[in-house]
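hey so i finally got around to running the thing on that chain from the lab meeting. sorry it took forever, my laptop kept dying and i had to restart like 3 times. anyway pasting the input first so we r on the same page abt which one it is
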Amino acid sequence: MQFRTQIPLSKSNNPIDYNSKVLSFGSCFAENMAEKFDYFKFQNETNPFGIIFNPVSIEKVMERTVNENWFTEKDVFFHNERWHSFEVHSDLSNSDRQELLETLNKAISETNKQLKEATHIIITYGTSWVYRNLESDEIVANCHKVPQKQFEKELLPVNTIQKSIQNTIGLIQTLNPNINFIFTVSPVRHIKDGFIENQLSKSHLFTALHQTFGFRLSTFNYFPSYEIMMDELRDYRFYTEDMLHPNQIAIDYIWKLFSENYVTEESISIMQEVDEIQKSLRHRSFNPESEQYQKFLAKLQQKINLLGDKLPQIKF
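ok and heres what got predicted. didnt touch it at all, straight out
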């Protein structure tokens, strides 16, 4: 008897290796995957404008980045003793307006360069629910704890999401026509919207993605992180205490499936070497001055040097 389902996965036609340059945008699950890329020492950058959940706001920062449309004083506002931008996450907010503008424009400049050089871009959509600022009539990426009466909550229609995805792809391809896209829907459930509303939100994302490229084109891949969480890991022991976010066991499992299908076999063996080094670096001796521990450190440094000779971009 079969006691669980398994999501069928196809191997990528353009897998990631240690020479690849990966750029990730999107929800907090994008950060979870980026932590794995960091741990295994891949070349990657994540969320230069902070966590962004909805497709329209991701499209907006892409448009700014590609066109180098710099932030100015009119794009920021003061609230709760800090300066913010409705287009980015509150992690970038600052008590000094000029410092915020410099940070935002530096992010545009650096991300523009990274997009030109990237081999792969991973976009993780989190929700179709958005908040529209009533004064500007613009969808915001983050409300920054501004009173809710200043916003109208709405569900993005499928055709709006589809158009936004197409616009995002088109913008990126103007800078880098050869970049490989990997799309996914975050497995994090947005229950604050409501249980039914969360499912409706995710279904709009799925439908828009499917209608955009049907998951079949060679430069586009769809990785089913949401489906893996819902069907293969359908048990609350795979969630954090809030029962909404995947816990470390779930993240590790989803990463395992991702790496098996989106990373080259040669790089998998290098990942094992990196993992051994990372675990050794975290080892703490009860007697750091002992001869045995000094030999351990010398052997570890030898491993690091050998790997560095093969792949100079890997730094520990």
